[in-house]
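Hi everyone, sorry if this is the wrong subforum. Our group has a chain we'd like a structural model of before ordering constructs, and none of us has done structure prediction before. Sequence below.
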Amino acid sequence: NEYKSYLSFTHMDRSGFFKNTSRSDENRKNRQHQVTQLRKDRRGEQISKRRQVIEDTTDDGMAESGGLTNSVELIDTHQIKQIFLESDANPDKVFSAVQSCRKILSKKSHRQIDEVINMGLLPHLVHFLTLDGSPELQFESCWAITNIASGNPLQTKAVVEGGAVPHLMRLLSSTNAHVAEQAIWALGNVAGDSAMYRDFVIESGIIPLLVDMTASTTASITLHRHVAWTLSNLCRNKDPPTSIESLTKMIPSIRLLLSSEDHSVLTDACWAVSFITDGGSERIQLAIQSGVVTKLVNLLEHHEISVISPALHAIGNIVTGKYEQIQNVINHGLLSHLSKLLFHQKPSIQKEATWTISNITAGTPTQIQAVIDANLLPYLVTVLTRGEFNCQREATWAVMNLTAGGTPQQIKRLYSLNCLAPLVRMLEIHDTKTMSCALSTCYNILNNAYKISKAEGNRIAVDFEACGGVVAMERLQRHENRQIY
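Answer:
Right subforum, don't worry. Here is the predicted structure as tokens:
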């Protein structure tokens, strides 16, 4: 009984601290606020719009993509408008004006977008999309519209309300590959603006065309890059999310793109899966049934960080699902890759790997044992001890989940790795939620020890005191947060 006072915090209300006390799927929702914030942070790594920027205004336009466009002298928007309004303007003169407009929009500033819109140049650019006899003019106009659509929501709205989307859709079937590729890029920018425009592009019939392009054996790598990125934008945004019907049509193509040898294609295909799986168990199951899990797990060994990051991101989403969905990823060999990722050179990947483990340790005792058998606990405790704070926070969740749902022997194994000291240090931070996790974990470890035997409990209580746990508990009794004290 001499250490009974050390456990006085067992009388506190811990109902809000545990994630898997009853081990039901519903309890996985307890951490959604944490998951949501992480998802928002990570989702920002893949931008929703891309602008084709040039440094030098004497570029060769379509020649850059293998076309025949020649460089022209740059003119300003007032001169461009004057040429557009001339009913009998020379075609070469019109082309030069359109190319100048495109070059103005290709500079590293969004001010030019408003200038072009306010000068009334957009309707003319849209009209030029219809001139099938002038593919170079279509290309330059499409490029200019692509960059207008890369702007803010009002600028993208001008493109949509200006009637560009139907013409861009038609150009996806252009016999000129460069025109078709640029049209995909423009539509990708429109779709990436919002859920409303995403659905508008989908309703315009883009998915079957992208599916055909993906399956084409003659498609260029450049085309596949544009297709992969546009597909990712068609899976993006959650308010509302893309319909299951649309995702079902797209995901076989996304799976096919995951076999590409081009890292840009792989990056965007992985982001597409991550967007699909960031929406509940039904969408997670759609991804699993498509067969992408094996490909995602294998891509964790890719040499490009830009590929590893979204692949891990997608896997992290999948293990927020039901227990059988977690097991599916375990069965595909995920755990053998995580020890390396826990010490990856990029902190965000370390954090994502730790977060992924935290959701596996929120699984069944069998799944917790799989983590132990993969020898991940020593790595996890190392992260908890000396990792960056964001990684330590995720590691705290991971060990709390283990102690909340693991067997006595599993919890004992965790304790044997000297986890008490770093947990006590987490009681000194200013992050209340993480502090609560650390507090619950310490309680679970001590409570588990006393269930094994009084001698075992007393031994661990001594260790807890030696780590400064008792002093920390006394200080927390004066904490301003009611849940803590």
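For your construct planning: Residues 1-44, 56-60, 63-69 have pLDDT under 50 and may be disordered. The first helix runs from residue 32 to 43.
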